[in-house]
Amino acid sequence: MKIQRRQSVVLVPYPFQGHVTPMLQLGSILHSQGFSVIVAHTEYRAPNYSNHPEFVFHSIDDGLQGIDMSFPSLENTYDMNENCKAPLRDYLVRMMEEEEDVRGEQLACIIYDKVMFFVDEVATQLRLPSIVLRTFSTAYLNSMLTIFQQPEKYFPFEDSQLLDPFPELHPLRFKDVPFPAINNTVPEPV
After folding, report:
1. Is 41 a catalytic residue?
2. Which of 58, 68, 90, 113 is catalytic?
3. To 5 degrees, how large is the angle CA 102–CA 104–CA 109?
């Protein structure tokens, strides 16, 4: 008779509002279905462990100590992705080595926030299945698609336009779209 081992999933949330909660909610659903849930999170804005005692939490060194992350820039997000790559890979390798002998669990997959794009590379290297969780709304997606189709049509714009309706995205205003007038330039592709 074959013994069925418990399956575990690793969740890798992006540490900002609107990203962590949906990931933890998904973890709760998976746990209710019998999965063991491991949350690999950055040191910045670590989740409250006591809210989910059924999960295992593992902190990943993000290398961003002392950097103002109150408004995440593309540069800081990129740095976070670069800095977290090796620590996550090392942790997963240890997990996979221990899964047979110590934990008695099999790693089923990694579920990660799309902004934590480094996870795809790590999962591919380790030949682990991965799933992307996109936590943004339909309005955000529609805004992104509209802007990236013709960015020169919308950028640069005058600060006086911040309260004006954004063309093709009524009732959103210029200040409501994903690229507010912080530097008022055409956004570079990521």
Report:
1. no
2. 113
3. 110
3-class secondary structure per residue, the chain? CCCCCEEEEEEECCCCCCCHHHHHHHHHHHHHCCCEEEEEEECCCCCCHHHCCCCEEEEECCCCCCCCCCCCCHHHHHHHHHHHHHHHHHHHHHHHHHHHHHHCEEEEEEEEECCCCHHHHHHHHHCCCEEEECCCCHHHHHHHHHHHHCHHHHCCCCHHHCCCECCCCCCCEHHHCCCCCCCCCCCCCC
**Cα gap 156→56, rounded to integer Å:** 46
How many CB atoms are located within 10 Å of the residue 87 CB? 19
**Tens digit of each residue's pLDDT (9 = 90 or more) over 47-64:** 888 899 999 999 998 887
* pLDDT tens digits along 68-103: 766 667 788 888 999 999 999 999 999 998 876 555
How many CB atoms within 10 Å of residue 110? 24
> Quick one: 53 exposed, middle or buried, by C-beta within 10 A (0-12, 13-18, 19+)?
exposed
Catalytic residue, chosen from 19, 79, 159, 170, is 19
Residue 19 known to be catalytic: yes
pTM, full prediction: 0.76
Asked whether the predicted pLDDT for residue 1 surpasses 90, the reply is no
Note whether 108 and 7 are within 8 A (CB). yes
